[in-house]
Structure formats: structure tokens, C-alpha cells
Amino acid sequence: MKAMVYRGPYKLRVEEKDRPRIEHPQDAVVRVTLATICGSDLHLYHGMMPDTRIGHTFGHEFVGVVDEVGSAVENLKVGDRVMVPFNVYCGTCFFCARGLYSNCHNVNPNATAVGGIYGYSHTTGGYDGGQAQYVRVPFADVGPSVIPDWLSDADAVPLTDAVSTGYFGAQLADVVEGDVVVVLGAGPVGLTAARSAWFMGAGRVIVVDHLDFRLEKARTWAYAETVNFSQVDDVVLHLKRMTGGLGADAVIDCVGAEADGNLLQHVTSAKLKLQGGSPIALNWAIDAVRKGGTVSVMGAYGPMFSAVKFGDAMNKGLTLRMNQTPVKRQWPRLLEHVRAGLLTPSDLLTHTFPLDDIAEAYHVFSSKLDGCIKAAVVPGQD
User: Which domain holds residue 152?
Assistant: First the structure.
């Protein structure tokens, strides 16, 4: 089969790999019909994540058709159209029993922290991802869901991560009626977090970014006020002024490890890799939220130390909430919103590339060329 293969930072290829096989009775093999590139895939592409091995296939956002099932699989059959959450999880361990699917203890040798994730280096279990024609799906009775007939692949695939993660970010922000919510980052996760904050009763939603086309999407799709941080002297001071001097009730960090905004911090973290990621967005969140407020962290960071203003967070009495999204927990309510016409996930897909052009897709998405907000990838048939 054809698959995207990692050959080092900024070096991707489409190569022939062995078609995945059933390795356990609870496995399924899914023929991928549509995948996407996630902002966190760029951390791998840029060499930010440790233990990203040569030959690994990225991609944790994908939908497809069940091609083969193991002998113990009961909930899926060959031919089912399925969406697969980015989490690999067993469904029965201490953490899964509590709905913490992203922290499953049985699927990752490094499971003292995160559980398993498709296509996200060996720090998350080393599972090959869905930017390929086929993918092995462990615990197939637990993770995948059959896609409703009324839901298109294009609307289903963002639910496997970006839209679910944005919604989860708004959940963790503990939004109550009338709250002022600031969202840092106007990528797909940030845009969804901003729109979801309205569902939860926000009184104002403000999105911060530095790319005009993304800010325009925030205004027209998420109905948010916007701030271009490159056009203000001090973004935190600007946000304080917008919020009566107090700060926002909640700030959601949807940027993570490669945040711009401070040249020294960006160079030491994203370029020299002396930190687990640029702390710029997280520190802005800590500074811009009011005392006693909530910071929700959806942006991905590496496991190394980052120079976060933890003392300020403590002295302000902040609540910090974060995790990798337990995706399947979000689906029932999100599907209600989609079916009611309150949310159209496919609106976030601005570009589509064949798998053979995966290197170009990453270049366009990484460099934010041609107004690219979200890139979809079509693997095609054998």
C-alpha cells in the first residue's frame, strides 16, 4: 500500500509499505477514504517531538471503510463506514473506566502520561497513522464508531480530533453564562473552541492570532471579536483593556509548542529545542485571564521543561485544566449540533490533496500558504 513516511524533519515521502494485518483478535483494518493534517502533526514534521522514528506514518485524523476484522470484534463488520478517534485505548483499564480514554494505561509503554495516539511518534505508542491507504485499528470494538448515513466523510473527519478538541477546550474552560472567553490561536481547534464557547453561554468571545485570513474566519465562522497580536504593542495589556482591566474569565490556549510572539522564546524552543515548546501562548493565557479565572490548555507541548509562569498562576488563584481529548466522549453532543445545523465541521477543510502530494500538502499547511486552514488528504485506491 501507499503511505506517507517520515524521513527526518521537513522530509516526507510517499512509499510502499506492507498492508497492515490483524495482529490481535480485537483488531480491525480500515481502508482510509479521507484523512487530514493536524496542527500537531507539524510538531512531528518540524522535529519537535522526541522519538519520531524514520519510517513512521503520521495521521491521527481519518475516516474509512472496514476492510477486515479480527475474530473477537463484535461491533463492526466489513464494509462499515467508520470514524476513528485519535486515541488508541482499551476501554477497560482504571483510566478508561473513568472516561479518560486519552490516558489509557494499556496501550503505550510510556503510559505514565499520555495513552496511545495514531501516527504520533513512539512517545505515544508508535502506532502508524492514517495518512495511508490502510491502517490497523486496535480495540476495534471500543474506539471507532459507524458514521451515520446522514453525515458525510468531510464532516466526520474533523470530529476525529480538531473539532472534538476545540469543543473539549471550551468544556474545560468552565464557561458560565455571560463569561468573557479569549481563545489563543485561530486554527481549526481554536475556531471550534471559540464557536463552542457560545454553545456554553459565553457573553463575549475574543480570538487572538496574527494571520488575517484566520482572523477573518474567526469573525465569520466563530462570530468572535478578533485581535491581531502583531498589530498591538502588548497583547496582554490590549486584552486587559478590552475586558475592563480585569482580564478574561477564561482563556483557551489552542496554539501550543510553536507559538510565535517572542523571538527569543520561539528560537530556544522551536528552533534550538531547549524547551518542550514555546511557552508564549500559555504565558499570555496566564497573564490575560482574571484572578480566579480558568486557563484551558489544548495546544500540544513536548515532555521537556518549558518556562511557564507557574508562580503567577498560583498567585492569581487560577484553575489550569488540560488533557489530550477523550474524543469519543464528545461525539454524542457534537453530532447533535451537526445534525441540527449549528456546526458544519467540513467548513474548516480549505484544501484537498491526493496522498501522492503529501509533501506539498505539509508545505502549504505548515507555511499557511493560500489561506490554508485545514488540509485534507485523499489516499485513493490500490
Answer: 2-161+326-378
What does the alpha-carbon distance between residue 128 and residue 220 come to, in Å, rounded to a whole number?
36
Can you give the pLDDT of all 382 residues of the chain as single tens digits?
Answer: 999 999 999 999 999 999 999 999 999 999 999 999 999 999 899 888 888 999 999 999 999 999 999 999 999 999 999 999 999 999 999 999 999 999 999 999 876 778 999 999 898 999 999 999 999 999 999 999 999 999 999 999 999 999 999 999 999 999 999 999 999 999 999 999 999 999 999 999 999 999 999 999 999 999 999 999 999 999 999 999 999 999 999 999 998 766 554 444 444 444 544 444 568 888 999 999 999 999 999 987 765 556 788 899 999 999 999 999 999 999 999 999 999 999 999 999 999 999 999 999 999 999 999 999 999 999 987 6
Same domain, 57 and 84: yes
Residue 246: CB atoms within 10 A of its CB come to 13
Phi, psi of 364, deg, nearest 5: -65, -45
* Rounded distance between C-alpha atoms, residue 11 and residue 302, angstroms: 20
Last residue in a domain, options 275, 299, 322: 322
Q: Cα(223)–Cα(101) distance, rounded to whole angstroms?
A: 31
Task: Give this prediction's pTM.
Answer: 0.93
Same domain, 294 and 231: yes
Element of type H or E holding 13: strand 12-16
Q: Are 99 and 87 spatial neighbours (Cβ–Cβ below 8 Å)?
A: no
| Residue owning grid cell 477564561 | 250
